[in-house]
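thread: overnight batch results

M.L. [08:02]
morning all. the overnight job finished for the chain we discussed friday. pasting input first so we're all looking at the same thing
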Amino acid sequence: MTVNRNILFEELFTKFLDVYQDIDAVIVSDQQGLIIAGHKRKDIDVEIVSVLTSIINPILERIRDEFAFREFGTASFDTEFYRLLFISLDERRTLSVVLNHLASVDKASPYAYLLAEKVVQIINAEEGDNIQLTIPNFEYDTDAAATEERVKNQIYQMRLDQGGLYRFKFVIIGDHEVGKTSLVRRFVENRFSHDYRATIGLNILSHSYEFYGNSIIYSLWDVGAQKFFARFRKTYYLGAQAAFMVFDLTNKQTFENIKEWYKELEDFIEGREIPLIIIGNKTDLVDERVVSYQDGVKLVNELTTKPNIKISYIETSALTGENVEDAFTLIAYHYISKSKEDEEEKVKMDLLDELNSILKERKVIGENLDSLLTLTIISENEFWSPGFKFSRKSIT
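M.L. [08:03]
and the structure it wrote out:
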């Protein structure tokens, strides 16, 4: 069955415009300005945009030549009615994003780079490729109460050991060419590609996995490593609940740079403590290996400076699949365990506060409080019992 790129482009562009209302059109064109694919929200002359693209291409080529990997280039300028953002997809094709004149290019750019990555995947798609076209809203601020209730329900489900449904967001970071995308593809599709192509900013994949009778939905955010994208990564880290940091066992510099990635992660998640796994990839290249297992363990010990931080170390091969599934299983276990601990502690403290409040109101001097107060706990979930231990010293 051949790949129907037109259908994929239509679905991708429609979803993209639904999420980002300030963008009026997206166009993919070649060096001569010939439109390959596009979608617009209202009456925009795509031919004019295409002509502008052909004019801007020489500038993009110059930017690309000066860029670290000579694969990307970007430019933007304003017209009377629109703001235009151009992203070089490769040496022959350009993505043009048309924004309304009040829109922020900086705000739109993280979305545009995700779109560019998806467009390249469609262009290079082969039969059997799994191209996921979801476009998330990076700035969606989940209601705190709703999030707490969702996590609480998940924790209660986990007590049953099976039948739960969980969705977690993981960011996957590390230097370029360490195999981040290959690890994700091995886990999601059980495939490996020998052709290297740097991720343009961000790629997002979703994958369902059975974990001890529970359904885990991984939202995998494969983040581009190029310095050019660093200013957008804080947006991509938003709401991350766990992280992989990947290095190449055959490249000492990628190992040493893990400390820089760790610092960036700490800065961007603003002090939140999330489970983390450091992955040494490419165990199949035995003769080229320059980082030992002991080196990896030592690094983890150096980074584990806080008692509540969970950092593990595992070595994998995206080529052979060695330990890849185990790495994703381990991160799910760490996240669920931490969530249970955090939620149980919070529920315990809330219950203690409530008990203290009740007892203060009903305190009777000289009377035995135990004979005056009956505590009944009604749970919406019949399988949950608040088996928390309270000492009398906690109750005033």
